[in-house]
């Protein structure tokens, strides 16, 4: 969890961990940067909702929710051609500050547009980097900026019944409620494939959680998912069915 103040460059990080892991983290981090979840908060979906609830209690309007296994952060300079060879490696702090700068720019240029943005995310993987610097109403991945005020005004929360695909589920419901998201394609991070890192999600995937999550999602949104290989956990979300209004698209594209 990262508390990003949209009015300045201050960034405060918090690690959200189970109570039984606190002593391990205290060996390396200050207790002021650690938030422990209660015993009834188990699993990725309830943990994400716990973070949102905490942000609301702290009166935060924007936060960055970051998975704990991200490895590298890059930007693709505008003057260079697309492709991994032209990427510039930067720190996570600089990466987030650049994302925060985009948020601030939109807020300054058009407060009405800003109020309708639910999430902002980045490109995962250095492969197949799009030529366009931004996309709208699409998947966002392992690091996402959440506009707490916008999703709260729409009474949106994570569906804690979802086993997996909880982040995609929230994104879909945000879009369906009239909000929209932005993906910065030339801000790139790398991370292991979901469920391959050591931890709780790995155990969920080993127990068939990904497949059950895919079926859950299909039940909720039969027209938005194409399951290509259930056994191997392969699917495709039909984001083209959630396209942004062209007028809003052009306004945001011009600003960003």
Q: What is the rounded distance between the termini?
A: 25 Å
The biggest beta sheet, please? 9 strands, mixed
Structural class: alpha+beta
Overall shape: it is: globular
Uncertain regions: pLDDT < 50 for 5+ in a row? none
Proportion of strand residues: 15-25%
Q: How much is the radius of gyration in Å?
A: 18 Å
What percent of residues adopt helix (DSSP H or I)?
25-40%
User: What's the number of helices?
Assistant: 9
Give the SSE string.
Answer: EEEHEHEEEHHEEEHHEHHEEH
Number of distinct beta strands:
13
**What is the residue-averaged pLDDT?**
88
Question: In short, what is this structure?
Answer:
The model has no long low-confidence stretch (mean pLDDT 88). By secondary structure, the protein is of the alpha+beta class.
Protein described:
The chain is α+β, with helices and mostly antiparallel strands. It is 34% helix and 24% strand. It is built from 9 helices and 13 strands. The chain has helices at 22-26, 44-57, 92-109, 111-115, 148-153, 166-176, 200-206, 209-220, 246-255; strands at 2-4, 11-13, 15-18, 34-37, 62-66, 72-75, 88-90, 117-124, 134-136, 143-147, 180-190, 225-229, 234-237. Strands 1, 2, 5, 6, 7, 8, 9, 10 and 11 form a 9-stranded mixed sheet that branches. A two-stranded parallel sheet has the order 3-4. It is globular and about 50 Å long. The mean pLDDT is 88.
């Amino acid at each position: 969890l990262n508390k990003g103040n949209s009015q300045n460059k201050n960034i405060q990080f918090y690690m959200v961990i189970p109570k039984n892991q606190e002593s391990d983290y205290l060996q390396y981090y200050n207790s002021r940067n650690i938030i422990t979840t209660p015993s009834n908060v188990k699993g990725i979906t309830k943990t994400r909702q716990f973070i949102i609830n905490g942000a609301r209690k702290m009166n935060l309007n924007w936060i960055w929710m970051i998975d704990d296994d991200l490895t590298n952060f890059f930007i693709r300079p505008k003057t260079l051609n697309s492709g991994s060879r032209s990427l510039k490696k930067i720190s996570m702090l600089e990466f987030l500050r650049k994302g925060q700068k985009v948020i601030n720019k939109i807020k300054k240029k058009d407060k009405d547009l800003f109020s309708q943005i639910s999430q902002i995310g980045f490109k995962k993987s250095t492969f197949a980097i799009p030529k366009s610097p931004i996309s709208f109403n699409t998947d966002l991945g392992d690091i996402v900026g959440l506009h707490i005020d916008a999703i709260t005004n729409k009474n949106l929360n994570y569906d804690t019944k979802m086993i997996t695909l909880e982040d995609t589920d929230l994104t879909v419901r945000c879009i369906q409620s009239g909000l929209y998201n932005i993906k910065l394609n030339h801000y790139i991070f790398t991370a292991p494939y979901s469920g391959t890192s050591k931890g709780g999600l790995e155990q969920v995937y080993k127990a068939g959680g990904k497949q059950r999550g895919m079926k859950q999602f299909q039940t909720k949104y039969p027209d938005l998912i194409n399951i290509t290989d259930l056994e191997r956990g392969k699917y495709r979300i039909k984001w083209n069915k959630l396209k942004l209004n062209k007028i809003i698209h052009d306004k945001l594209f011009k600003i960003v």
